Amino acid sequence: MPSVVIVGAQWGDEGKGKITDFLARDADMVVRYQGGANAGHTVVVDGVTYKLHLVPSGIIHGKTCVIGNGCVVDPETLLREIEYLHGHGVDTQGRLWISDAAHLIMPYHQRLDALQEQLRGDQRIGTTGRGIGPAYADKAARTGIRVGDLLDEALFRQRLERNVRQLNDLMHRVYDSEPFDVRAIAEQYLDLASRLRPYITDTAALINEALDQGRRVLFEGAQGTMLDLDHGSYPYVTSSYPSAGGACIGAGVGPTRIDHVIGVAKAYTSRVGDGPFPTELDDEIGEWIRQKGREFGTTTGRPRRCGWLDAVVLRHAVQVSGLGGLALVHLDTLGGLERVRIASAYEYRGQRLERLPHGAHQLAQCRPIYEELPGWDEDISSARRFEDLPENARNYVRRVEALVGVPVQLLSIGPDRAQTIALDDVFAAAARARGAGAR
Questions:
Q1: Predicted TM-score (pTM) above 0.85
Q2: Does the N terminus or the C terminus of the chain have fewer Cβ atoms within 10 A?
């Protein structure tokens, strides 16, 4: 059976949670492969809103869900999320698994995050302050503490004491900040460990076993391509790999096991945090999109920056993630605008660019070259077929396909699960890709 990777095709916050939820009904397992609780997913099912941060939204379908080794885990936040799901009647026992190789976010990571942002001043990145970057930095420095270490008290205490001893010297000499209490942290985390123990396992083995048994596996990324550590608008990026290649590393599967990649993109563009954003609308239209699209962060509540759809960014996502199709969401948000725009290229120092330049410095100097299309006034939220959409909305979707070079496979026209139009069967497309590869 085929496997599918869902990636964000813009700067994150594209609505991947809803698309994961929609596709999860036909999946057997949903795997989150990178990121931490800095990413929020909002899913609306039969009028009930679920707000998730780390647990894959497939859990609402009762599917087996995995937090992979590429994630970083704040155990206290995760346990609150599990309790939140239980309070909404969603069972996690035997359905949710956490990789023993995922890295822990510690209290010192969160303080370091805030202190480092403070020192950057006007060069700040715009992090959520949840310790994601410092946790990944420790992972790369080989001083991180992994989820599985919680199950060995002596080992956990040894690694914690080593880290805190070094950090307290840093707190004193560089940041003039209070030292960390190693005993208090140890007791706090070992107490959390007793509650997390039933969920911890070798998830790479679990995922590969599911694939060996012919089960449908859905891999879910957090953030978006433009926040990818290598392929995004560096340095205004996250600390992991949201692009499709991150699924292999972050879940522990080989690249030959991935059959199809679908990118999720809004019918416009949004982003949070600092950094360049060529199509940003700092005017009444941008504010109108923000309010109508409810563009406020699920995790932080921060207002998102909004602008027109950027086809250059989407073509970049197609290139680096090998997208086979798009899920175009929030199409309904654009309803009511007399004219709508799409950036088909950039102007950079007198030259026309069809591809994304490298680095935030060059991107900040790009000016969008727009195509303008007629808008539509009709309410499309009740449409259930592509043919039900007004002609101008259909033309907008077809123009996106032409500019980006891949088909739109799913359309979202509202927040509820039912407000999704399938132009193609994504798992069938994955099966076709697998068959073509076999030949």
A1: yes
A2: C
